Amino acid sequence: MSATAVQGSTPASLALDPRTLALLNDPVAPLILRMAWPNLVVMLLQASTGLIETYWVGRLGPDALAGMALVFPPFMLMQMLSVGAMGGGVSSAVARALGAGRREDADKVVSHGVALFAGLGLAFSALMLAFGEPFYRLSGAEGGALEAALAYSDVVFAGTVLLWVMNALASALRGTGDMLVPAGVVCFGVVLIVPLSPLLIYGFGPLPGLGVAGGGWAIVTFNALGCGFLLWYARSGRSVVRLTWSPLEWRPMAEILKVGALASLTSIQTNLIFIVVTALVGHAAGAAALAGYGTGARLEYLLIPLAFGFGAPLVPLVGTNVGAGAVDRAKRIAFTGAALAFVAAELIGVAAALVPAAWLGLFSADAAMIDAGAAYLRIAGPAYGFFAFGMALYFAAQGAGRLGRPLAVTLVRTLLAIGGAALAFVWAAPLWTMFAAVSLALVVYGVAMGLLTAGTEWGAERPRGRR
Fold it and tell me: What range does the record give for the signal peptide (predicted)?
C-alpha cells in the first residue's frame, strides 16, 4: 500500500483490499502502464501465435489461406464478445462492487458470469455448427476454400464453450486489477500452440497430419487447459474474488448484462464490417483479392488485442474510481490510456502503410493477393491510431457502466464502412474505394468517441453503507 493511499484513505476505504486502494490512489500514468504491460506482452505473444498459425496454414495453399480468412471474423467475434464485451461486463461489475465495498456481490458476479458464459458458448457452438456452411457460401467461399473453412470452423466452434468459460474467469480477475494471472495463462497458450499447431497440421512420424483442422485442434487444446487452470485458481482463494457456487439471482446477472449486452452489440457491429467487406471484396475481385484483404485486415484485427492491452486496465480503474465517487480521476485515467493506445497503434499503421509487403509477404507470394492487401493497408493503416483511441475509450465506458452513447458512435462507424463499401460494389468502383470507406469510418469513430467521453457525466455508485 502506497503512502499516498494510506494518507488519503477514509475510515471506510481502509477496509478495502490494498489492490483496490492502489486503483483509487496511485499516480495515473504509471498505474496504467504497470497494469497494461502484462496485456501488451500477451498481445505480442498472441500476434506471434496468429502469425505462425497463418504461416503454416498458408503453406497448404491459397484455398486454405482463403478458408481461414473466412473463419477469422466469426472466431474473432467470439474472442471479442467473451473478452472485451461480455467479459468487460464481468470486469466492470466486479470493479464497481469492490470500489463500493461490496465484496460478497463481487463473488456472486464471478459465479453468475461463469454460468452465463457457459450458456452463451454452447449457443454459439450450435449456431456455427448448424449454419456454418451457408454462412461461408454467402461470404463468397466455394470449392477448396469452402472445404478448408468448414474443416477449421467445425473444430474451433465445437469447443468454443471452453473459450467462453476461460474468459469469464479471466475477466473477473482483471476486474480486481489482477492482469498477471490471465496474462500468464495466455503465455502458456503460446508456448503450447507454437509447436502443437504445425505438429497437428502436418503430422510427424506415426502421427497423421490433420491439415487446416489441426490448427483448430491446437486452439481447442489450449482453451481446455486454460479453462481448467482458471477454474482451480478461482476456487483456491488466491484472488481478491472467489468462485463460489450459489443459486442464480437476477441482480448479479443484470450487473453483467447492463454493460456486456450493449458492449456485445458494439463487437457484433465491428465484426459485421469485416464480414460484409470481406464478402464484397470476394464477389467483386475473386479469391485472390479476398485472401489479400483478409490477410491485410488481419493486422487490423491484431490492433484489437493492442487496444485491449491498454483498454483492459481502464475497466477496473474507471469502474473502481466511479464506484468510489472519484469521477474526475476516472476521466483522467480514460484519456491517458486512450492516448497511449493511439500512439502504439498509429506507429503500427504507418509502418504497414509504408511497407505493406513486409506483412503480406509472410503468408503468400501471389501477386494479386499482395496487390489487394497492399491497397488496403496503404489506405487504412494511417487511421489505425484513431481506431485504438476509440476502442480504449470504449473500455473506459464499460468501466463506468455507460455504453448507450458509445454504441451509437459504433453504429455510425458501421453505417459508414458498410454503406460506403456497398455503394462502391454496386457502382463497380475500384477496389480502393471500399477500403477508403473503411478508413474514413475509423477516423470518425476515434474522433467521436473522444468528444463523447469528454462530454459525458459519469455518475458515482455509492457503497450501500453510505446510502
Answer: none
Q: d(Cα 108, Cα 113) in Å, to the nearest integer?
A: 8
CA 55, CA 364: separation in Å to the nearest integer?
8
Q: Extract the C-alpha cell encoding 310.
A: 491498454
Please report whether residue 363 resides in a domain. yes
pLDDT in tens, 416-461: 999 999 999 999 888 899 999 999 999 999 999 999 999 888 864 4
Tens of pLDDT, residues 202-235? 888 788 888 888 888 998 999 999 999 999 999 9
Asked if 277 and 434 touch (Cβ cutoff 8 Å), the reply is yes
What would the grid cell of residue 435 be?
477500403
C-alpha cell at 98: 469492490
The whole-model pTM stands at 0.71
Q: Are 194 and 209 in contact (CB under 8 A)?
A: no
Q: Cα–Cα distance between 155 and 391 in angstroms, integer?
A: 30
Beta bridge partners, 208, equal 203
* Closest C-alpha among 327, 321, 394 to residue 98: 321
Alpha-carbon span 176 to 459, nearest angstrom: 21
Q: Please choose, from the candidates 213, 201, 194, the residue with its C-alpha nearest in 3D space to the C-alpha of residue 155.
A: 213
The verdict on residue 210 lying in a domain is yes
244 and 231 Cβ atoms separated by less than 8 Å: no
Cell numbers for 118: 457457459
Helix axes of 62-79 and 212-235: crossing angle, nearest 10 degrees: 20
Q: Give the separation between CA 289 and CA 369, rounded to whole angstroms.
A: 5
| Three-class secondary structure assignment of 121-168 | HHHHHHHHHHHHHHHHHHCCCCHHHHHHHHHHHHHHHHCHHHHHHHHH
Q: Supply φ then ψ for residue 204, to 5 degrees.
A: -160, 125
Dist. CA 466–CA 137, nearest whole Å: 58
What's the total number of domains in the chain? 1
Residue 142: which domain range? Answer: 8-466
Residue 227 in any domain: the answer is yes
Q: Are strands 203-204 and 207-208 parallel, antiparallel or unpaired?
A: antiparallel
Give the Cβ contact number of residue 48 at 10 Å: 13
Q: Quick one: residue 392, left, alpha or beta (phi over 0 = left, psi -120 to 50 = alpha)?
A: alpha
Q: Is residue 1 part of a domain?
A: no
CA distances to 51, 66, 92, 145, 149 from 137, in Å: 25, 12, 38, 10, 10
